Amino acid sequence: PTRDILGSDNIEQSGAKVIEDPFTGDPLCLLPALNPDVALIHVHQADVYGNARIFGTNLFALEASVASKKVILSTEEIIDHDEIRTDPQRTTIPYYCVDAVVHLPFCAYPGCMPGKYELDIEHIGKLNAIVTDEQMKEYLEEYVYNVSDHAEFIDRKVGSRRLRELMKKASIKEGYR
Amino acid sequence: MKKTVEFTDTEFMIVHAARLLEDKKTFFVGFGLPQIVAILAQKLYTPNIVQVFEFGAIGPRAVTPFVRGTMGGPQNTYRSIQWANMNTAFSYSAAGYIDYGMLGAAQIDKYGNINSTMIGETFDAPVRRFPGSGGGNQVASYCWETIIVMKHEPRRFVEKVDFITSPGFLQGDRSREESGLPSKTGPWRVVTSKALFGFDEESRILKLLGVQRGLGVDDVIEGMEFKPAIADDIEELSPPSAEEIDLLRNDTDPSNIIIAGETVRIEV
């Protein structure tokens, strides 16, 4: 239940319904549950069971993990299970929401991983400049279909020099340890 | 001696939005232009304004220069009082903790309803489609006072928006409250690149409050699809000050990401 959406045209163009609040008698909006088939979530640290930590703000990592039928975590770092237990406050997602854990450093590229590496604004600019299907196809051809996996993408399309620059630019560490 | 000041239409909107804010209030800050408004206000006028991001940062002291594309990143969320998530941030707004919200609009109508979804007669066959609400609907629904910032193009002021993405006063009078939206919330000011509007307290119709120095009332309302209410005393909106311009160009947005726009020249 929510009070937003009310009064707007989003109600008609979505699954939302308006009912009478049984407590107050006022109009109230109900939203249907959203259950994605798969969620791909990138985290700072996870143990092998899928207990995961995201440092900094996150949009809806836990909610998406709970709601999705399958959850695939990619992580910058695999940590010991004991480390999770020594600082449980930092656990963002518990293991039972998670179906698979993939150790995949730099997976947030060209986005930023707070405290680890900055976003690659030039590459983001390239993405943002895409307006036609043709341009999108060209981009995917060059950066996605043309490489066999993420490691090859990082090696060939980004390179260690660029990665080092982005790591150096991530100078704010406060709160991300 | 007369002197000419030069600024962009975007800079004009940013500084007039920043000058509206009151200190020690909470401010729901959307992506892009509102971030620049918040940074400028925090540095010059309202040091204790608390920014709230839908990404979950509460009360950050953003590091400048402004970084685009990473609202939840380390620069924009630096030294917050809380790092949470979207669910929590919107819960705060739903519970009435957020004073100001700030939104853009592709179209606005006389009751302050905002369209950022599509232009056209029917939803399925639009002439143009826009990105849609994002968190805009929630900001407009819950913040006590929503400020709308938009480039001054009279054709974007319409009798009735093609699609209500974010609610204003709906059909006027008490229709907003009657729809179930929290009472006493709603659109408060509309800042454009040439004028400042509020809303009539009874009818809830858009009301002209101020015009840019050198312009008259007719200059800003001509071409609108409806006639807004006009305040008895129209405020003259001064151009951005040297201090504001300096801060925007040399500190906050030196890469000219947000502040770029059409050049305006005014004699002072």
Note the topology.
The complex is a heterodimer of chains A (about 180) and B (about 270).
Chain A: E1 17-20, E2 27-30, E3 38-46, E4 52-53, H1 61-67, E5 70-78, H2 81-86, E6 100-103, H3 121-128, H4 133-145, H5 150-158, H6 160-169
Chain B: E1 4-8, H1 9-20, E2 26-28, H2 33-44, E3 50-52, E4 57-58, E5 82-83, H3 86-94, E6 100-103, E7 107-109, E8 114-115, E9 118-119, E10 128-129, H4 136-142, E11 145-150, E12 157-158, H5 175-178, E13 187-192, E14 195-199, E15 206-212, H6 217-221, E16 229-237, H7 242-252, E17 263-267
Parallel strand pairs in B: 2-3, 2-6, 6-11, 7-12, 11-13, 15-16
Antiparallel strand pairs in B: 1-17, 4-5, 7-8, 9-10, 13-14, 14-15
Helix pairs in contact in B: 1-2, 2-7
Q: Measured on Cα atoms, how large is the radius of gyration of chain B?
A: 18 Å
SSE string of chain B, helices as H and strands as E: EHEHEEEHEEEEEHEEHEEEHEHE
Biggest sheet descriptor of chain B: 8 strands, mixed
Give a short account of the largest sheet of chain A. Answer: 4 strands, mixed
What share of the residues of chain A does DSSP label as strand, in percent?
Answer: 15-25%
**How far apart are the first and last residues' alpha carbons of chain A, in Å?**
36 Å
- The coarse silhouette of chain A is globular
Detail the poorly predicted runs of chain A.
none
The neighbouring-strand order within the major sheet of chain A is: 4-3-5-6
Determine the fraction of residues in helical runs of chain B and give it as a percent range. Answer: 10-25%
Q: Explain this structure to me?
A:
The complex is a heterodimer of chains A (177) and B (268). Chain A has 177 residues and is an alpha/beta fold. Helices cover 30% and strands 18% of the residues of chain A. In chain A, the strands form two sheets. A four-stranded mixed beta sheet of chain A has the order 4-3-5-6. Chain A has a two-stranded antiparallel sheet with strand order 1-2. The longest helix of chain A has 13 residues, at 133-145. Chain A starts with 16 loop residues before the first strand and ends in an 8-residue tail after the last helix. The model of chain A has no long low-confidence stretch (mean pLDDT 96). With 268 residues, chain B is α/β, with parallel strands linked by helices. Chain B is built from seven helices and 17 strands. In chain B, the strands form five sheets. Chain B has an eight-stranded mixed beta sheet with strand order 3-2-6-11-13-14-15-16. In chain B, strands 8-7-12 form a three-stranded mixed beta sheet, with no helix packed on it. In chain B, a hairpin with a 4-residue loop joins strand 7 (107-109) and strand 8 (114-115). In chain B, helix 1 (9-20) packs across helix 2. Chain A binds chain B through residues 2-10, 12-13, 18, 21, 26-29, 56-63, 111-112, 114-115, 118-119, 121, 124, 170, 172, 174-176, and chain B through 53-57, 63, 67-70, 72-75, 77-80, 83-87, 90, 94, 117, 123, 133, 137-138, 141-142, 163-167, 170, 175-176, 179-182.
